[in-house]
Every structure is written in structure tokens, then in C-alpha cells.
Design goal:
single chain; 412 residues; alpha/beta; nine-stranded mixed sheet; 24% strand
């Protein structure tokens, strides 16, 4: 049996980078022509000069909050849509609201590759328990299943007893949806004394998939894999039978940047996932900050796929907090670090001893750089408009977890 979706998954990494940056240059040229917002976003950049990740890192990052404001100012898509009504199949809404178009190309969100890696094949019946109302998740997996040659039962969410009955009657080969809802379905089937032996595979997403739950499914004969996707970008990465991180999708370029900045972190360091789509002619997004934390995994997957891997979802990068009535943002911590070249790494810890808010900037600096304490304290006050302290830490002492602001206040 073929273990790979196509030859793109096993190509030489250097060839992949060459092809992807050629596609990126074409997409930027198209976006500038068809999507007016890109004229402003990329005004100072020459698309022809973007040939590697070094040049890509010079482009601005657009984050969810930016997207929300852009769409509020110019409905429905903030000037980022590169096609109009009639060329799109559907429009969906995420909280905000933020509107996402679905293009007419097959498998618009590119999730067929993730389904294949999870074991789904042409001719399977897929029980789809993602939402079909307002949000795109149901359509994301349905269009992927159709592209793969599968038939779909659109179960949607809720109505657990009817879902159990449909699975018992139709005998689908696999399930797609959240892992927690599959657990609920299986428990309801047990309660009713109904066996569901046809379910042998699952592709789950939209929430954490802990090993304990994965193993519980396996004991029932269900091989579960996870996919990482968003309504804005489509597929970002997917799990394979190797179970060593998530393989980055062939249709995107993924960077890991320091939260609050546009700057890539060192390999293996936790940071924000920033994604550039390469083949979305309807809604191209370039350096889109997901707000999710992850890290790159070194080496190549044992499954034979050669694309880079990430560790999976590791939390949220947007660590904005409020101190004494004022918001403090990760970008402000980054601005403090930028002022002081001796700082290798920093984390702002917020606590409240005796009920009073306190900010302490923990910094890693060379042994001879601690004399800069007063200057750093001044920068904290200048940039955040709040008083703060500074604590010096040894190199490597701060955890590699992507946190820039750590709010540990207790309210007891």
C-alpha cells in the first residue's frame, strides 16, 4: 500500500524550499494585483527578492487582532480577498466576527493529505462531527474527504444518540471531529450496549489530543491522528503513524517567531507559529501569526516524509495581561529587550504579594552585564508606563516554553 499522499511529501528539502519560494513570489505578485490590502502591507518589498527564509523574515507579520481590525474597516475580508462573489463557494464566520472565504478549488483547505496520513482512503465512508453551522470546520473536512474519494455523513455536533445510531447503521470506516466528542459517542454507545466495530481510524483536531485519550481509542481498535489547521489558513501540519511531532503541510511555509515580534527564534526554541500560504488564489495570507506556540523538531520523520516538523500545539502566544489597570503586551517586553543588546532572553513575571501587583523582568545576560540593572528598570517604566524590577538569571535558566509574560497572581 502507498504510505504517502504524493511525491511532494518525500522530495529533497532543498528542492521543496526552491519550489515553495517560487510559489510564494507568484502569490505575492497575484495578491498585489487582486487584493488591495497587500499593496499597502508589502509596499516596501520586492517579491522577486524573496528567495529564502531570511528575506521572508523581513516581511511584516499580520496577526488575528490585525485581521479583525482590517475586516472591521473594510468588510468583508479587509482587502485581503483576491477573488469575489461567484468565485467563492462559501463564506464562514469565526468569533469577532472574522469572515473566511472558501474558494472553488477542490480541497480548498488542503486537509486531504492529513486524512490520508490518518489512514483514510478512497471509498471510505467518513463520519464528520465537525460543525456545519457558521464556522468552516465541517466543510474543511468534507471537501478534503471528497478530494480523497470518500463519501461523507455530515453528523455535525450534538445529538449523540442519533450519531451512535447512524454509525451503527452506516458502518463508517472512520471519524473526523474533536477527540472529546468521539469519546462521548463511544461512551454513549457503551451505555446503550451498541457496538461500533466499523470505526478503525480517526482524524481529530480543534483541541488537545493527550496520549491517554489516544491510547484509550487504540484499545478500542481506533487509530487516531491529529491535524493542526485554522479557518484562516487551512492545514498547517498533521500527524502520521510515526507519532513524532506534526509534519508541516506542503502548501505552507511555517516559521517560529518570538512572541510579540516578527523575528524567527533559534531552532528548537518555543515561539509563535507564523504561516504563509502558497496556493490560495482566493485568500492569500503572508506571514500570518496564528497566536499558537510550538517549536521545530530536528531531523526527519521515520515515516519518510521530509518536510520540517513541529511539536504540535504548546499554548497561546498572546500573553497580554493587565497590571494596575494597564495592558502589558509581549511586544513591549520585546521592545525592552531590543533596547539592551546584552539581554539574551527575558520573561516578565507578574505576581501580587500582599495583594499588590508587581512586575519583575527576569533576564538572561552575560556574567559581566548585571551593571545595566538601572537602565533596564528605566526602560520598563518608559515602555510599559509602569514600575518594574529586574532579576538576573544564568544562561539557560529561563524555561523554553515560549512564555514572554508569566502572570502568576493569585486571588484567594
Amino acid at each position: 500500500m502507498n504510505h504517502h499522499f504524493d511525491t511532494l511529501e518525500t522530495r529533497d528539502p532543498a528542492l521543496r524550499e526552491r519550489d515553495q519560494f517560487a510559489a510564494l513570489r507568484r502569490q505575492i505578485a497575484h495578491a498585489r494585483t487582486a487584493a488591495p490590502a497587500f499593496t499597502k502591507l508589502l509596499a516596501d518589498f520586492d517579491a522577486a527578492g524573496i528567495t529564502s527564509r531570511v528575506e521572508l523574515a523581513q516581511l511584516p507579520v499580520t496577526r488575528k487582532s490585525d485581521l479583525l481590525e482590517m475586516q472591521k474597516a473594510l468588510r468583508p475580508f479587509g482587502g485581503l480577498a483576491a477573488s469575489g462573489w461567484g468565485a467563492m463557494r462559501r463564506v464562514f464566520a469565526s468569533p469577532g466576527p472574522i469572515y473566511e472565504p472558501e474558494g472553488a478549488r477542490p480541497d480548498h483547505w488542503r486537509l486531504a493529505r492529513a486524512l490520508f496520513a490518518a489512514g483514510f482512503r478512497a471509498g471510505d465512508l467518513v463520519h464528520n462531527c465537525f460543525s456545519y453551522h457558521l464556522t468552516p470546520a465541517g466543510s474543511m473536512l468534507e471537501t478534503a474527504a471528497h478530494a480523497l474519494g470518500c463519501t461523507v455523513f455530515p453528523g455535525g455536533i450534538g445529538q449523540t444518540e442519533l450519531q451512535v445510531q447512524a454509525i451503527a447503521d452506516l458502518r463508517p470506516a472512520g471519524y473526523v471531529g474533536t477527540p472529546s466528542f468521539l469519546k462521548i459517542i463511544l461512551e454513549k454507545a457503551d451505555e446503550q450496549g451498541i457496538a461500533l466495530p466499523s470505526l478503525t481510524k480517526a482524524l481529530v483536531s480543534a483541541e488537545a489530543f493527550p496520549p491517554s485519550l489516544r491510547d484509550a481509542f487504540a484499545r478500542r481498535g481506533i487509530h487516531g491522528c491529529q491535524a493542526y489547521a485554522t479557518a484562516d489558513l487551512g492545514s498547517i501540519a498533521y500527524e502520521t503513524s510515526a507519532r513524532e511531532g506534526l509534519i508541516v503541510d506542503e502548501g505552507v511555509i511555517v516559521e517560529i517567531v518570538r512572541p510579540g515580534t516578527a523575528d524567527p527564534v533559534a531552532p528548537g526554541e518555543v515561539g509563535e507559529v507564523v504561516v504563509t500560504t502558497l496556493f490560495n488564489v482566493d485568500y492569500p495570507l503572508i506571514r500570518f501569526g496564528t497566536g499558537d506556540l510550538s517549536a521545530l523538531l530536528p531531523g526527519v520523520s521515520p515515516c519518510g516524509r521530509t518536510n520540517m516538523r513541529i511539536k504540535g500545539w504548546m499554548g497561546r502566544a498572546d500573553q497580554t495581561t493587565k497590571v494596575k489597570g494597564m495592558f502589558v503586551h509581549p511586544s513591549q517586553v520585546a521592545a525592552i529587550v531590543k533596547r539592551h543588546g546584552e539581554i539574551v532572553k527575558a520573561r516578565l513575571v507578574v505576581d501580587n504579594p500582599d495583594g499588590n501587583d508587581r512586575m519583575t523582568l527576569h533576564v538572561e545576560v552575560p556574567a559581566n552585564a548585571s551593571a545595566c540593572a538601572d537602565a533596564i528598570v528605566t526602560s520598563i517604566r518608559d515602555i510599559t508606563k509602569l514600575r518594574g524590577e529586574v532579576t538576573f538569571r544564568a544562561a539557560g535558566a529561563l524555561p523554553n516554553d515560549g512564555k514572554v509574560i508569566d502572570d502568576i497572581r493569585k486571588y484567594e
